[in-house]
Write a structure and sequence with these properties.
The chain is 34% helix and 15% strand. Helix 2 runs antiparallel to helix 5. Bound molecules: flavin mononucleotide (FMN).
């Protein structure tokens, strides 16, 4: 049975945000094309500095084994060990230079993060799940997928339907069922000066 790990919150949040989490177990089930398209549509409508939309995604699905194996090959061993069950893998890239004049775009990573957050929440809404990974080799990804200068491979995202934790190795199963942890609000919501918890955050 897929696991639900709903966020334990200090204040009410939208159900979708509470239900999103990052599993490592996936069902052996392809993701429908129309659903995949909806995820990128959700990413498309993220806000971005100057409406630059400095993001791109390179997709690999189980249906195209050569392309999929290429994506797997850029992952670190630990991630490859579980992500090879995800029916879809995608490389997320940020355009770190403005299109019009090539100046550095300081907010490219911020904007890509917003797009991938949209994508992840849309996945949750469709019964799918995402697991983002920093554990991959950006240089290998650049070469494998002919990424041009000015674009930075930032993460690989595993996507699919959530699977049974019992399908994992025992070590990963333990991590899968572990309680979700977050810093309390007063550790990062300040007022007046750095490090002074905002009264609204301290009072919950
Ligand atoms: C940018 C980014 C990189 C991550 N890299 C990895 C990774 O390489 N391997 C992994 O197993 N999980 C990775 N994660 C998943 C995080 O560990 C996970 O999001 C975090 O523990 C919070 O758990 P939750 O997403 O279930 O709420 C990454 C998440 C993000 C957003």
């Amino acid at each position: 049975m897929p696991l639900q790990k709903i966020a334990e919150t200090q204040a009410p949040i939208h159900d979708l945000i509470g239900r999103r989490w990052s599993p490592r177990a996936f069902l052996n089930l392809p993701v429908e094309t129309d659903k995949l398209l909806s995820l990128f549509e959700a990413a498309r409508w993220a806000a971005s500095s100057n409406n630059e939309q400095p993001w791109a995604f390179i997709v690999a699905t189980h249906d195209d084994p050569q392309n999929y194996e290429g994506m797997l090959s850029v992952l670190v061993d630990f991630n490859r060990g579980w992500a090879n069950k995800a029916p879809v893998l995608m490389l997320a890239l940020a355009h770190t230079q403005f299109e019009k004049d090539g100046r550095p775009n300081r907010h490219a990573y911020y904007d890509l993060g917003q797009a991938t957050a949209n994508l992840s929440l849309q996945a949750t809404a469709l019964g799918l799940t995402t697991h983002q990974m920093a554990g991959f080799n950006p240089q290998a990804a650049r070469e494998r997928f002919a990424v041009p200068e000015g674009w930075e491979p930032v993460s690989v995202i595993a996507l699919g339907y959530p699977g049974d934790p019992d399908s994992l190795t025992e070590t990963l199963r333990q991590r899968e069922i572990a309680r979700r942890e977050r810093k309390p609000l007063e550790k990062f919501v300040f007022e007046g000066a750095w490090g002074h918890p905002a009264p609204i955050a301290g009072s919950v």
